[in-house]
């Protein structure tokens, strides 16, 4: 008996097993593509160009096993958002387009020992104070304004720079991927233009889907892991979602253009110019890797400065020290990144550039790259939902290394375009409804941003997490629900 | 002639037309402005910019990239775009093999810079090459550009 299939226009997906669908290799594809989804999610994924884009990704030289679309996948540019592609680091390539513009866009979660009871009645004061003190939107400046020398130090040293300059404590470094400093970062490979854009944006949210949210823990699904992460029901936590700002955006574009000028041959083999890639071992591949790692450091510092400023805001609102409120970093995960990692492929150890674009690393318990604090239970994975829905904390699942090169989803995934969202929702109404019906306090620089990020424009985060959990790539640990949200 | 914003799940696309290459470049840039804000106040001073690149498409990409760069470093949203001139390769440079030669395509343009503090605007992160089209049609030029939001 043949496996069930799913027809999506010109593309036929074959079911490998529950929640695993494959687009078979044909034509110029160098590997099959896989989509990890329930049929409900697949019905949504088929609506835009996600499937075409994940198929295009398999044309990249060195693609290993298969290109993978996560359950929250949706159309992006070149690579789909929610895409994972492991490209051979010796014979393959590295693709700035497959990392995306917002290098190390990601999320971090900070714990507190406050309960929802203690916060209720103070929501407006808190949201106003956060909004006044955390730079957001276009041209809102940053927590620090720096000269180019400082930018170079941030690019080279990451959160270590923040520690030395009073914006972090030692413990923050121990709870961040790579301890907040990416090795191999080369500030010299980041252009002056990129540095000029970044220097006024250090410690700023930006706009679009980026936000800072105060949340309460509503459910603990796994008591043992919940305890290891320091999470319990009714606790207040803070989630911060942003990236490398103009510095990262400019870095991506600078290298897309260099590839176009220097590696036209490879570019011409690819079905989408936005997949532009530099061959592994070339000077440009090395330069981009150094620049991208530097931009990763910049993004970590960005989130660190916002988190540290948030501690100060809580101190003022609740009139006690942040240490007394136990405001510690739970973890920081990157969404848009390419990392050289060693994976076992058909029994052999191979070095791969694992591209995760709108996907999260999800290493399981025991993996040496999981920070010591969490090595026994697995790496924390933070999945932000929309403004009106919950977010999740997962832990890297035991099957992630076999199925997804140690990756899972990164969020709810968009469903509706921004232009349509603006026609269907009005920012003020969305804000009022959230406040009146769900006691969620939202403050934004732009009403249009609220409309475009309305809860209705996103996929069902519960369904995304259900698939991740069932596949064992990211297991449910806890769920949180928004209390206050600020955005650009 | 002008532009339309088109649906794209995560981002925004601009479809533009113009009677000349200059006109279509300006229309895409006006589309970029429309991606950033719904209402353009009557404030700010005009400034000029010049960009050079190795092909017509690359020139459009670099022109839009430069506008986004200038927005961040000037802290002004460029609006009301005017493209003064676009020049292509001359016969000599088109035949030349010198890779260090200046890129043969050039655009000179102006825009009015509205201080970001006076605007309700959102950030367009970058111009992308994804699905980009720039085509000569019967009555002028058509362009399609996706911007990352």
What would your notes on this structure say?
The complex is a heterodimer of chains A (about 500) and B (about 150). With about 500 residues, chain A is of the alpha+beta class. Chain A has a single domain (about 5-90, about 105-485), classed as tRNA-splicing ligase RtcB (Alpha-Beta Complex), CATH 3.90.1860. Chain A contains 18 helices and 20 strands. In chain A, the strands form four sheets. Chain A has an eight-stranded mixed sheet with strand order 1-2-3-4-5-6-14-13, with helices on both faces. In chain A, strands 8, 9, 10, 12, 16, 17, 19 and 20 form an eight-stranded mixed sheet that branches. A two-stranded antiparallel ribbon of chain A has the order 7-11. In chain A, helix 5 crosses helix 13 (about 285-320) and helix 6 packs across helix 13 (about 285-320). The longest helix of chain A is centred in the middle third of the chain and has 36 residues, at about 285-320. Chain A is globular. The N and C termini of chain A lie far apart (about 55 Å). With about 150 residues, chain B is α+β, with helices and mostly antiparallel strands. Chain B has one domain: Archease, Possible Chaperone, Chain: A, domain 1 (3-Layer(bab) Sandwich), CATH 3.55.10.10. Chain B has helices spanning about 20-35, 55-75, 90-95, and strands at about 1-5, 10-20, 45-55, 75-85, 105-115, 125, 135, 140-149. In chain B, strands 1, 2, 6, 7 and 8 form a five-stranded antiparallel sheet that branches. In chain B, strands 3-5-4 form a three-stranded antiparallel sheet. In chain B, helix 1 (about 20-35) runs parallel beside helix 2 (about 55-75). The two termini of chain B are about 25 Å apart. Classes of the chains: A alpha+beta (about 500), B alpha+beta (about 150). Chains A and B meet through strand 5, helix 9, helix 11, helix 15 and helix 17 of A and helix 2 and strand 6 of B.
């Amino acid at each position: 008996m043949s496996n069930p299939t799913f027809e999506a226009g010109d593309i036929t997906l074959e079911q490998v097993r529950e929640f695993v669908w494959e687009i078979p290799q044909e034509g110029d594809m160098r590997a099959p593509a896989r989509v990890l989804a329930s049929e409900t999610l697949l019905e949504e994924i088929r609506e835009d160009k996600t499937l075409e884009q994940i198929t295009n990704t398999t044309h990249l030289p060195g693609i290993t096993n298969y290109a993978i679309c996560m359950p929250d996948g949706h159309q992006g540019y070149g690579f789909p958002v929610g895409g994972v592609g492991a490209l051979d680091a010796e014979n393959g390539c590295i693709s700035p387009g497959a990392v995306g513009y917002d290098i190390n866009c990601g999320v971090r979660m900070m714990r507190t020992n406050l309960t929802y009871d203690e916060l209720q009645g103070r929501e407006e004061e808190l949201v106003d104070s956060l909004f006044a003190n955390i730079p957001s939107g276009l041209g809102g400046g940053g927590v620090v304004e720096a000269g180019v020398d400082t930018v170079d130090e941030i690019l080279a040293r990451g959160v270590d720079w923040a520690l030395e300059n009073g914006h972090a404590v030692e413990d923050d470094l121990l709870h961040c991927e790579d301890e907040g400093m990416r090795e191999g970062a080369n500030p010299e490979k980041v252009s002056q233009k990129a540095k000029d854009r970044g220097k006024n944006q250090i410690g700023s949210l930006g706009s679009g889907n980026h936000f800072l949210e105060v949340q309460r823990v509503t459910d603990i699904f796994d008591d043992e892991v919940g305890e290891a992460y320091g999470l319990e029901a009714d606790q207040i936590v803070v989630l911060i979602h942003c990236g490398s700002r103009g510095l990262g955006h400019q870095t991506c574009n600078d290298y897309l253009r260099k590839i176009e000028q220097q590696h036209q041959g490879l570019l011409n083999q690819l079905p989408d110019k936005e997949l532009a890639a530099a061959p592994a071992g070339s000077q440009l591949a090395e330069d981009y890797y150094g620049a991208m790692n530097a931009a990763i450091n910049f993004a970590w510092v960005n989130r660190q400065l916002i988190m540290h400023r948030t501690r100060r805001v809580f101190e003022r609102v609740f009139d006690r020290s942040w240490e007394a409120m136990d405001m510690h970093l739970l973890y920081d995960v990157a969404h848009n990144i390419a990392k050289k990692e060693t994976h076992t492929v058909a029994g052999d150890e191979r070095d791969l550039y694992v591209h995760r674009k709108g996907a999260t690393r999800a290493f399981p318990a025991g993996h040496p790259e999981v920070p010591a604090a969490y090595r026994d239970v697995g790496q924390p994975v933070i999945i932000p939902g929309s403004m009106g829905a919950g977010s999740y904390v997962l832990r890297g699942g035991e099957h992630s290394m076999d199925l997804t090169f140690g990756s899972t989803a990164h969020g709810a995934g968009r469903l509706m375009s921004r232009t349509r969202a603006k026609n269907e929702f009005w920012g003020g109404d969305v804000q009022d409804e959230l406040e009146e019906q769900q006691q969620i306090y939202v403050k934004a620089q732009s009403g249009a941003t609220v409309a475009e990020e309305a809860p209705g424009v996103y996929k069902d985060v519960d369904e995304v997490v259900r698939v991740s959990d069932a596949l064992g790539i990211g297991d449910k640990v806890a769920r949180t629900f928004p209390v206050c949200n600020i955005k650009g | 002639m002008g532009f339309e914003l088109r649906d794209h799940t995560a981002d925004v696309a601009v479809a533009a037309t113009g009677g000349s290459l200059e006109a279509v470049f300006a229309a895409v840039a006006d589309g970029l402005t429309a991606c950033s804000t719904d209402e353009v106040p009557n404030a700010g001073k005009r400034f000029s910019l010049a960009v050079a690149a190795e092909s017509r498409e690359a020139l459009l990409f670099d022109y839009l990239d430069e506008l986004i760069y200038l927005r961040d470093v000037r802290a002004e949203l460029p609006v009301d775009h005017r493209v003064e001139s676009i020049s292509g390769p001359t016969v000599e440079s088109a035949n030349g093999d010198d890779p260090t030669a200046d890129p043969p395509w050039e655009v000179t343009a102006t825009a009015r810079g509205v201080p970001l503090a006076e605007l309700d605007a959102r950030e367009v992160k970058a111009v992308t090459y994804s699905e980009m089209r720039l085509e000569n049609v019967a009555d002028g030029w058509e362009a399609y550009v996706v911007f990352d939001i």
